[in-house]
Amino acid sequence: MAAVRDKSVVVTGAGGGIGAALARRFAAEGARVVVNDLDEARAKETAAEIGGLAVPGDASGIVPAAREALGGTIDVFCANAGVGTGGGPEAPEDAWELAWDVNVMAHVRAARELLPEWLERGAGRFVSTVSAAGLLTMVGAAPYSVTKHGAYAFAEWLSLTYRHRGIRVHAICPQGVRTDMLAATGAAGDLVLAPTAIEPAAVADALFAAMTEDRFLVLPHPEAADYYAARATDPDGWLTAMNRLQQKLEEREGDAR
User: Fold this and answer.
1) Above 90 in pLDDT, residue 2?
2) Which of 5, 63, 145, 152 could be 137's S-S partner, Cβ–Cβ 3.0 to 4.6 Å?
3) What's the pTM?
4) Alpha carbon 112 to chain centroid, angstroms
């Protein structure tokens, strides 16, 4: 793909799952890729596989080190690292803070570092791995749902603010993807996500299709568009349907006990 060949790309949370699939695809298309992950060993493993550069550490502050590793320039930044915090208002304060910090503020901090250079040269691409939970919601996971809505809102804001200045933004909103995060969702994931789960490589395919079409919203599960439309046009009907899912979840959890 000409748009990324010889470009400098950073992918956070790329030790596995969607991040690793994105890193593989960018490398296969001829980009120079920095692989970031909190887990140093996994970051190095992915980097070695694709001929990339491992820059492990907290995604919130990775831009300066990644830029240096790439020789001074970042063309594409994939804000992919995320946490799937479950529970409701009763979830511990630190769980809410972690979800907010990783799922939203890491994106804000990266953009803060990247935008001055991108705006000066009139080019840059910001890819946000959001989740369909950012368009819709996820039963049993208030911190995840709320912060993914925040991630989507921030990506949307970046696009509407800077697209006329050469900045391209993409929000990836898959439903279930066969990753460690899906495996950790328990009964809620089994009920809502697992039946239509896809492989991480399919998410990378969807992103590259959106990049080719210069399209903001990336829907690896196309049916999410219909759910999103239903949520907007008939919120009470949509909430009623989601509440039925919540009741099914409670029944499953009750049976498990």
Assistant:
1) no
2) 145
3) 0.93
4) 18
Q: What burial class does residue 178 get, using C-beta atoms within 10 Å of its C-beta: 0-12 exposed, 13-18 middle, 19+ buried?
A: middle
What digits encode the pLDDT tens for the residues 39-64?
Answer: 999 999 999 999 999 999 999 999 99
Q: What b-and-e string marks burial along 102-116, b requiring 16 or more CB atoms within 10 Å of the CB?
A: bbbbbbebbbebbbe
Which ranges of the chain would DSSP assign to H, the alpha helix? 17-28, 40-50, 63-69, 93-100, 106-121, 142-162, 180-183, 186-192, 200-213, 224-233, 235-256
Q: Are 23 and 91 in contact (CB under 8 A)?
A: no
Q: Are 218 and 135 in contact (CB under 8 A)?
A: no
What residues does each domain of the chain span?
8-256
Cβ atoms within 10 Å of 227's Cβ, excluding its own: 17
Determine the Cα–Cα distance for residues 73 and 65; give it in Å rounded to an integer: 11
Q: What are the structure tokens assigned to 224, written together? A: 């999410």
Q: Is 227 a catalytic residue?
A: no
User: Which residue carries 């979830």 as its tokens?
Assistant: 91
Alpha-carbon distance of 91 to 70, in angstroms, equals 39
Q: Say what the pLDDT of residue 37 is.
A: 97
Q: Does domain 8-256 have CATH number 3.60.15.10?
A: no
Residue 184: predicted pLDDT: 66
